[in-house]
Amino acid sequence: MCHAATSNSLRGRNVAMHFIAIGLNHKTAPVHLREQVSFTSATLCAFLNRLPSPSKNAAPPTATALHETVILSTCNRLEYYAATPHPDAAAEEIIARLSDTFGVAAEMFHPHLYTLRDEAVVEHLMRVAAGLDSMVLGEAQILGQVVTAYQTATAHHAAGPFLSRLFERAIHAGKRARTETGIGLNPASISSVAVHMARRHLSDLSGKTVMILGAGEMGTLAMKVLVNEGVGQLLIVNRTRQRAVALAERWHAEPHTFDDMLPALARADLVIASTAAPHAVLHKPQVAQAMAARPDRPLLIVDIALPRDVEPDVTDVPNVHLHNLDHLQAQIADNLKAREREIPKVEAILAEETAAFLHWQRSLGVKPTITTFRRQFDAIRRQELERALNRLPNLSQREQKIVAELSHRLMNKFLHPPTARLRAEAANGNGFLYAKTLHELFALEVDSQGVGSRE
Fold it and tell me: What b/e sequence results for 272-281 when a residue is b if at least 16 CB atoms lie within 10 Å of its CB, and e otherwise?
């Protein structure tokens, strides 16, 4: 079951290369631990810069078992992907480096880690990129995060030919999952469903004025979705002005505090309430006062806070409509069921992409044999061609070229069936046996590492 590949790209000789992934996520580790072992953009760049890199040296560094590295760090997961000829040593090194970087004793996070190798790494990364391993099934952000992780590793010369091929294939699989199935349709996060529900109620959000009540995580996510919907004006209302101003600058919005909420409320077509207050912050008298200035223009309020931000009796005010978490949760449940029905289609795509990648990976095990096979026969061809031409001194240059091309075509035709069969058997896991047979039958020269790699 080992799916190690061999390549000359790292040492100039055959190296059995394995994949390993060590990580923790929302299913294995509590949030406080995930916060402790999370990279920022700056700390990730610094970490990657400290890694010895094969691409920076004539040969891979001896001080590390980690020949290639890509790190995926989000709020819900930290995953360290590596290509290495020494998976056991690499696993120990990864844990030691993470412990040292975050100042967290290994025994604190070790029980929450999962370790994957070879084909399991490939299958896992495919599922991650497609959104099947996310907290919210099919969420779109993870694919962008996988792309960013790969691009960051490449920019810092940490990703080499093996992880590059793996991540490019996984990213392609993730894109296929979203374009060929409905796994990303029907919003399933609270913020997305809130905006989707508002769009359905108001017909169109473009040009509308939206007030975000509360500048926390939920409000920020809602703002991102609203900007994509092309809203006309964003008004951010927060308890502290500093936070409101910071987010307003980021999203080109207008900042307000609770003290000047009423003028903003009077302008809004839609309010999304998402504060962390322990009690309601929007009451019927405030809404009534705001609506008095625009009695004929409806106001939709979507309350996604828990506890609720908005008193239920605001709907007593004419033209005011209120949706809360109960309405949203029912919609989310329906949307998730729709996404779950798409899982078999996504898994079929991932199976295709995984098989294609493993075919490539296994073929690397026989590549040195094929190269030696062709090189050795080409040497014989050249030798016999030279001998024949010496015996035919009266041939013109054109005629000599024709004879040379004939010898080359004949060699290719003779070599094609055994090399094609060898590649096919490598894809089926039999590459080592067939490569060994080829070496014995044709007395191929064997380098210091032996024949191919046993899978």
Answer: bbbbebeebb
Pairing of strands 209-213, 233-238: parallel
Residues near 224 by beta carbon (within 8 Å), at least 6 away in sequence: 191, 251
Q: How far apart are CA 15 and CA 12, in angstroms?
A: 9
Q: How far is CA 296 from CA 234, 288, 293, 413, 437, in A?
A: 21, 13, 9, 82, 86
- CB atoms under 10 Å from CB of 94, counted, come to 24
Note the residue count of the chain: 455
- Cα 18 from Cα 12, distance rounded (Å): 17
The DSSP output letter for 409 is H
Whether the full predicted model's pTM is greater than 0.90, yes or no, is no
Domains, the chain: 5-184+342-363 (3.30.460.30), 190-334 (3.40.50.720), 367-442 (no CATH)
- Whole-number Å distance between alpha carbons of 267 and 215: 19
In the 8-state DSSP scheme, what is residue 137?
T
Distance of alpha carbon 100 from alpha carbon 47, whole angstroms: 11
pLDDT digits (tens, 9 = 90+) for 38-52: 998 999 999 999 987
Q: Measured on CA atoms in the order 217, 222, 225, 228, is the torsion positive or negative?
A: negative
Residues in a beta bridge with 209: 233
Which residues participate in catalysis according to the annotation? 75
Q: Alpha-carbon distance 386 to 398, whole Å? A: 15
Instruction: Please tell me whether residue 207 adopts helix, strand or coil conformation.
Output: coil
Quick one: which H or E segment has residue 93? helix 87-102
* pLDDT tens per residue across span 312-332: 999 999 999 999 888 888 888
Phi–psi pair at 206, nearest 5 degrees: -65, 130
